[in-house]
Amino acid sequence: MVPYSGNSSASASKATEDRNGFRLPATILFSKEKVHVIWPQPRPIGPGLNNLGNTCFLNSVLQCLTYTAPLANYLLSGHHSNSCKTTNFCMMCLLETHVGRCFTRQMSEAISPKAIVGRLRNIAKQFRIGRQEDSHEFARYLVDALQRSCLLGYDSKLDDRIKETTVVHQIFGGYFQSQVKCLRCGHESNTFETYLDVSLDIKGADSVQKAFRDYTTPEILSKGNQYKCEKCKILVDAKKQMTIYDAPNILSIHLKRFTFTGQKINRHVRFEPTLSLNSFMSKNKDHGDLNYSLYAVLVHAGGSCHSGHYYCYVKSSNGLWYSMNDSHVGVVSLNTVLSQNAYMLFY
Question: What residues does the USP domain cover (predicted)?
Answer without folding.
Answer: 47-347
